[in-house]
Amino acid sequence: MSSLYRSAISARIAKLPNLPQSDGDEDYDEPDEIADSLGSLPSPGKMGPPPPVSATRSTSIQIPEYTPIRPDAYGQYFAQALQVELPTRGLVVRAYHTHLRGSGVMIMHHGAGYSALSFACLTKELDEMIGKDVGILAFDARRHGKTVPMEGQSDDNLSMDALVDDLVALVQTMFKDVETAPVLMLVGHSMGGSVVVRACPKLQELKYVVSGVAVLDVVEGTAIDALPHMHALLETRPEGFHSEEEAIEWHLTTHAINNPASARISVPSILIPQESTVAPLTRANGGYAFRWRTPLKSTAPYWQSWFESLSTFFLSIRTGRLLILAGRERLDTMLEIGHMQGKFQLKVMTGRGGTYVGHLVHEDDPVELAENLREFWERNQRIVVKGKVIKRVGEA
């Protein structure tokens, strides 16, 4: 990770509420996300928790861009939602998919604190571009979204090994016959990027064909360096919200998400009513009507395991490799060297029409990302020369 990026983290941390601050923030020109490999956070020193909002507040509710799209309105983006039982994992997994037609499937794994519906807008764009050839399958990880433990089971374990085994079990359940299974492309955001990188060789050992792995905005060096600051950064997050509209507004005004269309579908899916028994209360939440489905502070014991050796694993997988970043300065030394050696394809999101692209690259600019993934998919498909199939990297 560059020294400039590291110094930016330290500088921003110094401006957190309740910590020593500099006078003013005159150099702030645009939304800036730092140390956000676990979950998007507001820029420290710029935005803190929203002030209390009364139950009668109407300003946000009247603004269309803050109006939630119900999580059960997935039909605008996916063809079907499933509750997939994984007895070996003790889970009932919520999965969404487009029409699974054609020769392949892109499997999407979200980051910590998010849900499969963070891929909703991206899925819609991809389905329009390559839907006749490729299906999309996105799912809620354990302790996220609508995935729940089976009766008598626990989903407390969020270690990397558990998350990887969950993904492998889901693939084996959805595509039981390896001989007829579609070609897989694995796409993971942040924590999910670590999961798909480690799941790839396990799936290949089971004889599934993986044409490529795409990692969205996570780099080992940047993530590990950010971990000491995460608890302080998470203090800038509110414990809950009085309404879903308020939650959407918070994500947009703090630039955690920069695309209202995506925020309206993804944000409600990462909240639960205060009285919900899906996830236990970690502490009093100030009487808010909604709280986080997966409080990021509760995942702290697993942070190190999520990102350790990620660069090494990424460079060693035997398939096509794509790394998509919100900024090139996020590369660590190992990946800088690997990129110069041509070991993977690198794309830096630019944002279309002045759109700011932050950590949630798939939500902020789903069109640009869909084009990058389409190109990556097409580049890594089988090549047929005079009737003979030439195998891809990673095929036995």
Strands, helices and their partners?
Layout: H1 3-13, E1 80-86, E2 91-97, E3 104-109, H2 120-130, E4 134-139, E5 148-149, H3 160-174, E6 183-189, H4 191-205, E7 210-216, H5 220-226, H6 230-234, E8 240-241, H7 244-253, H8 260-266, E9 271-273, E10 290-292, H9 303-307, H10 310-316, E11 320-325, H11 333-340, E12 345-348, H12 361-364, H13 366-379, E13 383-385, E14 388-390
Helix pairs in contact: 2-13, 3-4
**Overall shape:** globular
DSSP strand count? 14
CATH topology of the domain at 74-226 and 301-390: Rossmann fold
The CATH homology group name of the domain at 74-226 and 301-390 = Alpha/Beta hydrolase fold, catalytic domain
Our measurement of the CA-to-CA distance between the termini, rounded to an integer number of angstroms, reads 35 Å
CATH hierarchy: architecture of the domain at 74-226 and 301-390: 3-Layer(aba) Sandwich
Number of helices: 13
Unreliable residue runs: 1-37, 40-62
Give the proportion of residues in helices: 25-40%
Instruction: Characterize the largest beta sheet: strand count, sense, and whether it forms a barrel.
Output: 9 strands, mixed
Q: Give the amount of beta strand, in percent.
A: 15-25%
What is the H/E order? Answer: HEEEHEEHEHEHHEHHEEHHEHEHHEE
Q: Give Rg in angstroms.
A: 20 Å
Mean pLDDT: 83
What is the CATH class designation of the domain at 74-226 and 301-390?
Alpha Beta
Structural class: alpha/beta
Region (Disordered): 15-59
Keywords: Hydrolase, Serine esterase
Biased composition (Low complexity): 37-46
Protein name: Protein phosphatase methylesterase 1
